[in-house]
Amino acid sequence: MSFPAHAGTPGSPVGRVLGTQDASPLTFWVAVGSDAYLQLDDVVVTQRDLPDRGTVTISGVVTAVRARHEGAAFESDVFAIADGMLPAMVQEAAEITVTRVEPEIYVPPAPGAVAYRAHGETRDAALSFDRMQRRLPIGIGRDGAPLFLNADFLDGSRGAHCSISGISGVATKTSFATFLLYSIFTSGVLGSKAESANTKALIFNVKGEDLLFLDHENNRLDEPTREAYHKLGLEAGAFKQVTVFAPARAGDPSGSPDVASRLTGVDPFYWTLSEFAEQRLLPYVFADADDERQQYTMVVHAVAAHLAREAQPAGGGLSIDGTRLGSYEDFVDYVVEQLNDDETRSTWAGSSVGLGTVNAFARRLISSKRDLARLIRGDLPGGRAHQISTADAGQVTVVDLHNLPDRAQRFVVGVTLKTEFERKEKAGTAKPLLFVVLDELNKYAPRDGTSPIKEVLLDIAERGRSLGVILIGAQQTASEVERRIVSNSAIRVVGRLDPAEASRPEYGFLPPTQRQRALLAKPGTMFVAQPEIPVPLAVEFPFPAWATRPSEAGAAPRATLASMVSATDPFAVVGSTRDGAIPDDEIPF
Amino acid sequence: MSFHVDAWDPSYGASLDASAPGPSDGLDVEVELPAEQWRPLDAPAGLAPPATVLMVDGVRRIDARIWTAGIGGTPPSPGLACSYAAGVVRCAAGNASVAAATVERSIFTSAADQSDVDAGSTVRYKAVRIEGAQDADLMAAMQTALMQLEQRTTTDVLATLAGGDELIVVDGPLRGPGAPPRVIGYAKTQQKQYLPDHLLPVVGALSPGQRTPVFRIGGRWSRYTWYLRQPGGIPIPWSGVVRLECSAELTRAQAIELAELSTVTLPRYASSAVKDPRAPQQLVPIGGLEQRLRRMLGDTKLLQRALAAASVRQ
To answer: Domains, chain A, ranges and CATH?
Structure first.
């Protein structure tokens, strides 16, 4: 096969536009030359000269390839051909889905026109990278060159939020989310150094102690991986400034964090009973409430209001009407008792609530004792740092939930997100940004029903863009996540999918062949859809340079070697968290 | 009474044309064996087929029938616009490829002033004048032109060969005397009776893969020939029988060697009745080559239209 070799061709010739299949301005087929090949995701460019309008460059991505014997009429002919009896030609053809037409004159490419494999600038133009002012590296393409995301669609300038789907274990959703964060922090797309440094991330760790070592270098980091990072313009390394929060150990009077593998640089978190009452956290105990229409939610809000009004802090505990409550169990028993008492019921639950509704509330409250007693404490002082806050923490805040029961996980996620969102709301500016990485979004924001957490997440999805809270949500099945959250995500990422899941309309952004490919995507391969490019890009992101499990953790960074006790401020006045309104008798001297 | 249905597609004519006996002048049946020893011969054990087999074939098609206006009141002259192509397929172990393929287009006409016709893009019909020709003469001229093209194509391919042990099979009888030494003609239909009646039962007794002894026939020019029964026919006499021939300028030993070589080589290429209407005589590579050549002739409706358009322009 020979091609006209004239100067200024956009790449190396690989074939010609097919005339036996319809060529359209949006898709066309290319017959691949016998001495060339095209694979899926290759970038192909062809040109057409128009009278008066100059040359139109049509570029696209290979979305299907096929090979067949020409001249064979029967299936058994393949044996005759292989035996050297029947002359036949192997002909490959590739389907090109158009990604860009420049200038925008939507004419079909001319059948017979030479198709080129795009390199360098032509490739970047085909994938619209040249139009991106801030390019966020997200991995390497099948052609070995870097692929980018338009940061405008992630940081809220023109769009925000990222939704990552894929089955557990092989889809590497969390790894991709952390890689995305690493790229955001270190690639400099956020502008000035200060801006990058002030941007925060909040990660909830739900699986093992995997994410507790983000600030440790990965001991499996080798030279080829470093090369891959260099190719993307990044320096391989661990996250700097990671603050790890773990739940306080159950029953431990010192409130030490409950972690097994990471022993230093972990801060405990818990809520004192007085904070619980004052911040009206009671609704989050019922975060699995699957339906707002349930009557008892009225009781929840009535009790929460009553608590906020009546409860007085007493040490870490609570004092209500002179009764001191020193633990969550005591608190629950007291509330249930009050509700069962005919005289006090109406002051707690309101007057028009039926007994059945009150009992439904009481039943659920009692069952929460086992799960939440370790998080809502009356035995620990409120003075020491024990609350999750990204404002005072390092760049990355990891909240460890893995050894908490489901109900407690919901409580922590709900309260933390609410607190952070309110803090950003008060701050009034979007910058610096806060990225929230939350796995199992289908659990926290299911498609059906409502819950306090879902409300917070919806708030983030719909208003977070302007407030600077960016959600990086991950889930096994996007079809089970609230539609408004998924549809608000500008960036959609898919790893390996379950076959039944892949056929759902939530993945309509994947062309049929990519849907099929997603069923066998390797770990480390993701399909990334972004608003500017009509075809999702198949991305291979490099192996994490930070430890993703305890066994991978290299040497601990110096900063974390300080004792965890140092996080406690011995000079803090007990109760000083209460907006300066310190009752005199609470000052301990 | 017993009868059988010919495996051949009726549109190709019968595989055995039981017409009048042919010329018997120059017949020599004792080239290989004395007449009384004639019997079916098996392929010699241990003889390997050549590594490369070349097969030559051509296809032709009448694209349009044209009439060239006469001058000064004379009636218009008939003409045939034809496309024809010849090609060579090279069969080697594991790979059959078309080694050469050429297409020509001509207008055969009796008109004196018919010029070449440019039918757009790269299609050009060359005018060939045959004085006073009638329809049959025009057809014959087309056949001759195709044969010449086949010969040219074969010569071109032969020139590229190093002169190894290739066997060259030409589809149809040899076109004339003086064929190169390793070329054999492959006649699929038996239109004439060459053997005397008393030897015909030997042909009927052939099993698949067997041949008759070599004999020499005369006619317009003399050549060596033998019958071979291809496997895959129906189990009755004369089914799947082809006649092969080679140049009479070879020695008897060379002719016998070629006959033996054809017996070990050609049965492998016999086609199957489910795929080819001319099975088993039609050779598989030639079937593939014909298909390719027909594609190269182009779309007949398109050519007709182009010719019609050209006729208006002129």
So the answer is: 11-128 (2.40.30), 135-269+393-565 (3.40.50.300), 271-306+315-373 (no CATH)
